[in-house]
Amino acid sequence: MQPGSLCLTDRATASLCPGPSGRWRRVLSWGAFLATVLFVPGCTKPPSPSSLPPPVVLIAEVTASNVPVVIEYIGQLDSPQNVEVRARVEAFVEKILFTEGATVNQGDPLYLLDTKPFLERLEAAKGGLAEARAALNKYEKDVARLRPLAEKRAIPQQDLDNAIASVDVGRANVQTAEARLKSSELDLSYCDVRAPASGRIGAKEVSVGELVGKGQPTLLATISQLDPIWFYGSISEVDYLRGLEVERRFGLRFIDVPLTLILADGSEHAEPGKWVFADRAVDTTTGTLRARAVFPNPGGALRPGMFGRVRMVLRIDRPSLLVPQRAVQELQGKHFVWVVDDAKTAMQRPVKAGVRFGSAWVIDEGLKAGERIIVEGAQKARQGAPVQPMTAEEMAQAAAARQAGAQKPVAKE
Q1: Inside any domain, residue 233
Q2: Which of 133, 137, 140 is closest to 160 using CA atoms?
Q3: CA-CA 20 to 30 A from 4: which of 12, 106, 154, 325?
Q4: Distance (Å, rounded) from C-alpha 16 to C-alpha 118?
């Protein structure tokens, strides 16, 4: 037999062994190939789940510590009093007497409007008043002259009655003329526009020569009171209810807790503030309650419209269980954590979360100090299934060991 030929040594099949180029050799070769293709995949089975190693999870131990609870709310600053200065008469602007952005006091002159039409009306009102008073004087003299004659029946009684009625009409005319004079004087005074309140004035809304007050009061400028200044924040309905629970359990009053204002650049306002107002109802569109805090602003550095955060530190003289916020899962308003027991088995447990402390939750119910919870890798845990718990230090050591093994040079043969 030539080398490389495929031949069956069994005597019963010896006749099936042709030469190297025979038909039976090709048949047997294809049969061996098909057997290899069909047999190998059939014998390879995927590993069962029970044979997989437990997933590695990062755990942390629940600790109890007497720490202050810090609560923060985002909001916006506003002035307690934003006064709009408007034109109260129709006139042209003659002068602008203030500096934009400066601090003004109540009564400081701001604008001077054209007074010539109002001076003319004032003189006309004075003339009308003088005329009414002269007519009244005549009517009174007529009554004084006719009364004795009427008593002697020298004149009809009707003449005296008419004279007395003329006096009443004259007095009414005098009152009307006096009112017109006061109105003219008031309109003239409106040409001298002065600051109705003290504060920081904004930009001018009109220019010299512009007609103001035609048809409606024209906005001239806005003055904002800056000391003190208000902070408006929105408190969620859940936080509001939790706050009531904290007040009840620990005997606190949020209105007595000093507030710290944190500005947009992270700096803190030097003056502490306090809560002074909470709205009567929760906004149904946002589910939040609007609250207001007040802060002293002696230097006027804080301006209306600035964004910031208020920080409230609750000093609770009672050990609290702190859990990393990423370890707490929330589903339909309920909170859960994964607990690892001594047998390295993961169990999901419902808890009652309280207020936040930085990046941690204060757990009121459901956990005990010393228990181990899953911080990372909870998505790989299954109820009642084993896990491989590792602390942050153990994971760091394992990562360092892997890196050292990867960098170790391979010996050459």
Answers
A1: yes
A2: 140
A3: 12
A4: 134
The Cα 23–Cα 6 span in angstroms is 11
Cα–chain-centroid distance for residue 394? Answer: 41
DSSP code at position 11: G
Distance CA 69, CA 318 (A): 11
In angstroms, the Cα distances linking 212 to 71, 88, 110, 209, 247 are 49, 9, 14, 9, 55
| Confidence at 326, pLDDT banded by 50, 70, 90 | confident
In this structure, are 93 and 191 located in the same domain? yes
- 314, 330, 350 - which closes a domain: 314
Quick one: the chain helix, strand, coil %, rounded to 5?
35, 30, 35
299-318 burial code (b ≥16 CB/10 A, e <16): eeebebebebbbebebebee
Q: Are residues 130 and 159 in the same domain?
A: yes
Whether the ω angle into residue 228 lies within 30 degrees of 0, i.e. cis, is yes
Residues in the chain: 413
Handedness of CA 176, 178, 179, 185 (dihedral sign): positive
Summarised one tens digit per residue, pLDDT across range 82-122 is 999 999 999 999 999 999 999 999 999 999 999 999 999 99
Domain that holds residue 379: 56-65+319-402
Count structural domains, the chain: 3
Tokens standing for 163?
Answer: 């004279």
- CATH code, domain carrying 247: 2.40.30.170
Between the CA of residue 389 and those of 207, 347, 369, 384, 399, what are the distances in Å? 74, 13, 18, 14, 15
Q: Which of 95, 103, 122 is nearest to 193 (CA)?
A: 95
Cα gap 195→12, rounded to integer Å: 125
Q: Are residues 61 and 74 in the same domain?
A: no
Find out whether 386 and 335 touch, Cβ atoms under 8 Å. no
Q: What type of residue sits at position 364?
A: D
Query: Which of 314, 333, 365 is where one domain is finished?
Result: 314
- Whether 32 maps to a domain, the answer reads no
Mark whether 299 and 257 lie in a shared domain. yes
pLDDT per position as a tens digit, 207-262: 999 999 988 899 999 999 998 999 999 998 888 887 887 788 777 788 888 999 99
CATH number for 371: 2.40.420.20
pTM of the model: 0.59
